[in-house]
Design brief:
The chain is an alpha/beta fold. The protein has helices at about 15-25, 35-55, 75, 90-105, 120-125, 160-170, 185-205, 210-225, 230-235, 240-250, 260-265, 285-305, and strands at about 5-10, 30-35, 65-70, 80-85, 110-115, 135-140, 145-150, 175. The protein has 12 helices and 8 strands. It binds nicotinamide-adenine-dinucleotide (NAD).
Length: about 300
């Protein structure tokens, strides 16, 4: 595998534009593909927002990066050293586009999927060169969250993994490499374990939604960004964890269904910010201001964490 200089990002919805902007800042020539001019118009706006975030974060910039936009997939893929797939989370669509990638790119180009949970082995199973297919799972929003999960399928080669990790390193992001694939990978498994317990506590009337958020934000949330779980165990003392876990683990939610609060609100069409309300209600002003305010706070937190040697 030669050095990665050209990338094709296939699918420019929520994730693609930010992924493209991060690669561009790392000196990569990026082509963003989507199925329509209308989708690309939105992608252009997404790229501008992501570029602005990267500028405010103030990390290194490598010369030579660029972004172009394409509705012709062959043209987008031509000459790509790596393909980043970010199409909808449906196996049929993923398989269809990966089959297309194989027809156009060089035999040694790396093919990655941003899937949130579809097995990489399944995406790669009908391909001629499944060894070069790697899970490269970015976190949303990709311009702000500097961690990417790298997931091997059963047939993924070491060389493909190493090339993907080298690219992540080059753009200044952190690789979290999994040894094998499991549903939801690591990030979403941990997040969903937290969500399940939080919702169970609200459903059982132990705590209100606002109080729950206050507790998590100023308790474990703030702390975990400096002292993550495995390190926290050493801080707490493994003997203390052992004795608390021995009675508490059996009381924590093992619910395999979905929280009744969520199923009820979903049925009522209360889906969160995108419908103006979900677990909380939002005024039009709040809806307009919240994303910017939260991005500013995340930028400030990330800068602080980057500057600390812990
Ligand atoms: N949204 C998130 O928070 C998030 C986070 C991490 C990973 N992911 C994963 O990233 C992938 C993309 O997610 P998203 O939220 O950006 O999706 P999205 O629905 O916002 O965007 C998908 C884009 O793909 C385009 N598309 C549809 N069919 C296509 C095809 N055949 N060829 C090329 N493009 C096509 C659509 O026009 C759309 O612009 C999914 O696998 C998702 O699970 C999403």
């Amino acid at each position: 595998m030669s050095e990665i200089n050209k990338a094709a990002v296939i699918g420019t919805g929520t994730m693609g534009p930010g992924m493209g902007a991060v690669l561009e800042r790392g000196g990569i020539e990026v082509t963003l593909f989507d199925v329509s001019e209308e989708a690309l118009e939105k992608a252009r706006q997404g790229v501008e927002i992501a570029r602005g975030i990267l500028e405010r974060l103030g990390g290194d910039r490598t010369e030579g990066g660029s972004i172009s936009f394409e509705t012709d997939m062959d043209a987008a893929l031509k000459g790509a050293d790596i393909v980043l797939e970010a199409v909808p989370e449906k196996l049929e669509i993923k398989k269809e586009v990966f089959a297309k990638f194989e027809q156009v790119v060089a035999d040694d180009a790396i093919l990655t999927s941003n899937t949130s949970g579809i097995p990489i082995t399944k995406i790669a199973e009908d391909l001629k060169h499944p060894g070069r297919v790697v899970g490269m799972h970015w976190s949303n929003p990709p311009a702000l969250i500097p961690m990417i999960e790298v997931i091997p399928g059963d047939q993924t080669s070491e060389a493909a993994i190493e090339a993907t990790k080298a690219l992540i390193d080059r753009v200044g992001y952190h690789t979290s490499q999994l040894k094998k694939e499991v549903p939801g990978f690591v990030e979403n498994r941990v997040l969903y374990a937290i969500m399940r317990e939080c919702l169970a506590l609200v459903d059982e009337g132990v705590v209100g939604a606002e109080e729950l958020d206050l507790n998590v934000k100023w308790g474990i949330g703030y702390k975990l960004s400096v002292i993550p779980p495995m390190q926290l165990l050493d801080v707490a003392g493994l003997d203390i964890y052992e004795s608390v876990a021995s009675y508490l683990n059996s009381d924590i939610s093992t619910e395999s269904g979905v929280s009744e609060t969520i199923t009820k609100l979903t049925a009522e069409g209360k889906l969160g910010l995108k419908t103006g309300g979900g677990l909380f209600e939002y005024t039009d002003e709040e809806l307009a201001e919240l994303p910017g305010k939260r991005a500013a706070a995340l930028i400030a937190v990330r800068k602080t964490l980057d500057s600390q040697d812990v």
